Amino acid sequence: MTQTRGAHPTVPQVSLIGLFVAALVTAQLTASKVLAFSVPFSIPITGSDLVLPGAALAYALTFLASDCYAELYGRRAAQIVVNVAFVLNFVVLALVWSTIAAPAAETSIDPGAFANVLGASTNVVLGSLLAYVVSQNWDVIVFHRIREYTGRDHLWLRNVASTASSQAIDTVIFVSIAFAVAPSLLGVGVVLPLEVVLSLIVGQYLLKLAIAVLDTPVVYAIVYLVRSRRGVGTEDAATA
Question: What residue intervals traverse the membrane (predicted)?
Fold first, then answer.
């Protein structure tokens, strides 16, 4: 019995899924650290300092992986990865919270410090989960809507346009929910002043936008390498 080529996952396909999930989990675990970058010029709202959560760096890689996956394996396959990974977010949270709740041995690191570092607050969890499911699905939809008009040409356009718009959605939803809506309506977390919320939104988005532009050559390289291997199992994403 002859098997259809591409019926089973290939190394590039599994690697892209692995990169997506690894970056997503890393983003969950690094969200509690706040990063601060100084720039040699002043930006409206933020000034010369960009403040953003540590998760922003890892989370940006998820869009690189999803765009490569969408280009190579089609819209349906990409949306399956995005939405299965959304469910796996709850697995990560359950494992982390259960470890925090479990009794610590005398030789363990300080349980309080462990909980502070890995135990994301309710407002941050709500913001990140809602931002993820909306922005990642938007990224796949926009990517393929542009591809319907461009075919395989102008990969740079759909990579930058889909990532830039979805990152804007992600940033606004996350910061608004985590630091304004959830603390105000649910009483979890701290309500930040409007100017601080705006500063966080601008700071995060500028970094994410820069990464979206800079990762375009990487997307081209990955797509080229996979397609250059004859019969890797990629599909015409315009019809997948």
Answer: 52-73, 80-101, 113-135, 172-193, 205-226
**pTM recorded for the entire structure:** 0.82
Name residues whose C-beta falls within 8 Å of residue 166's C-beta, 6 or more positions apart in sequence.
63, 135, 136, 138, 139, 142
* Rounded CA separation 9/27 (Å): 26
Q: Which positions ≥6 away from 167 have C-beta within 8 Å?
A: 60, 63, 135, 205, 208, 209, 212
Mean pLDDT of 112-139: 85
Q: Which two tokens stand for residue 187?
A: 């009483």
Q: Is residue 5 part of a domain?
A: no
Total tally of structural domains belonging to the chain: 1
- Name the band, by pLDDT with cuts 50, 70 and 90, for residue 231: low
187-216 pLDDT tens trace:
767 788 888 888 888 888 888 888 888 889
Q: Is residue 235 a part of any domain in this protein? A: no
Query: 3-state class of 129 per DSSP?
Result: helix
Residue 61 has pLDDT above 70, yes or no: yes
Q: In sequence order, what DSSP letters do the residues of 53-71 get, joined into one string? A: ETHHHHHHHHHHHHHHHHH
Q: Note down the domain range covering 166.
A: 11-228
Is 139 inside a domain boundary?
yes
Report the C-alpha gap between 66 and 81 in whole angstroms: 8
